[in-house]
Amino acid sequence: FHSSSKLSSNHKKRCNFGIAFDIDGVILRGRVPVGGSPQALRRLYLDSGELIVPYLFLTNGGGIPETKRAKELSELLGVNIMASQVVQGHSPFRNLLKKFENELIIATGKGDPALVMSEYGFKKVLSLEEFASYFESIDPVSQYKRWTTMPQSDRKEPAMPRYNVLSERIKAAFVVSDPVDWGRDIQVLCDVLRSGGLPGGANNNQPPLYFAADDLEYQAAFPSKRLGIGAFRIALESVFNRINPKRLECVTYGKPNPFVFKNAEVILSQLQSSSRQDHSKNNRVPGSHPFEMLYMIGDNPSVDVKGAQQGILGFLF
Ligand code: G3P
Ligand code: MG
Q: Which domain of life does the protein's organism represent (predicted)?
């Protein structure tokens, strides 16, 4: 990074580079900032707090809405982070709104996956935990579990299903973040996917299944890497393909998909355009980006580095 004073003296010129930061293993380990990440981020602002280097967070993690994550990151890192600077694995699920806005869908993963999907505009979302609670004995070992994965706000016994889950089919399932109860989730997802969205029955029309990312492992607080959402995908797929005649079909989002990096470029351009120093945007060729260089700073070679190398926009890593 340049020093703060150097950036201050040059800030009248438009910044010709942008940065995408990975979060886990680069900015944070668990909830603890890595090295001098808060100090490094502070150098991207003027003393007045104005952003001078367009940057965003490009993480395959998630589980809470971008607005909340921005607030949480601002507190942990000591800079004012906007929701538009937070791109999580599940952020592109928004683009599926046209398809499923008014359809019954389920969402699972750590945090509050149903809230994430509701904030994107999906009208009929159930967390997998709530959905499972309407089917007696769907999880045959639930009585041995002394914990719940349900967010505090939802922890009340549902008297009546919010939707008619016994007759209305689930139209899509979303793995929004790292699943917490793998055993239950594999069981219930197999039920939903093998029955055409109505557990207990049999129907070969598998509802679409979407994963927010496909990381096999990621760096959290523990010294060695932890199994990620991609490991869960392999576990689910292995079981499903053994018990179902048709192979599992699913779509994975997140890095290293090129569209994630393309989208990051668009956001970085918008961040730069909203800066009062940028007077050049009217002269720009449509579709081109205003940067000489875009940097991706990540810790996962098969996700961050691969994505940056494949990115249609010339991200360096
Ligand atoms: O669950 C988080 C993990 O899959 C990766 O996060 O920030 O390293 O892309 P990140
Ligand atoms: Mg990482």
A: Eukaryota
* Residue-level pLDDT at 18: 94
The pLDDT value recorded for residue 101 is: 98
> Is the distance from the beta carbon of residue 100 to the nearest atom of ligand 1 less than 6 Å?
no
Of the candidates 31, 165, 109, the one whose C-alpha atom is nearest the C-alpha of residue 117 is 109
Report pLDDT for 274.
78
Q: How many A from CA of 23 to the centre of ligand 2?
A: 6
Domain boundary assignment for the chain? 4-89+255-316, 91-252
Distance 298 CA to ligand 1 centre (A): 10
Cα(51) to ligand 1 centroid in Å equals 25
Distance 60 CA to ligand 1 centre (A): 4
Going by alpha carbons, the residue nearest to atom 1 of ligand 1 is: 61
Instruction: Give the number of residues written for the chain.
Output: 317
In the chain, which stretches have pLDDT less than 70?
1-14, 151-159, 275-289, 311-317
Q: Which atom of ligand 1 is nearest to the CA of 60?
A: 9
The answer to whether the peptide bond before residue 113 is cis (omega within 30 degrees of 0) is no
Q: Looking at the CA of 57, which ligand is closest?
A: 1
Backbone angle region of 30, left / alpha / beta, with phi > 0 → left and psi within -120 to 50 → alpha: left
Instruction: ipTM value, please give it.
Output: 0.97
Query: Quick one: pLDDT at residue 155?
Result: 61
Angle (nearest 5°) at CA 252 between 249 and 254: 175
Superfamily of domain covering 91-252: HAD superfamily/HAD-like (3.40.50.1000)
For residue 194, how far is the Cα from the chain centroid?
Answer: 26
- In short, whether 45's Cβ falls inside 6 Å of ligand 1 is no
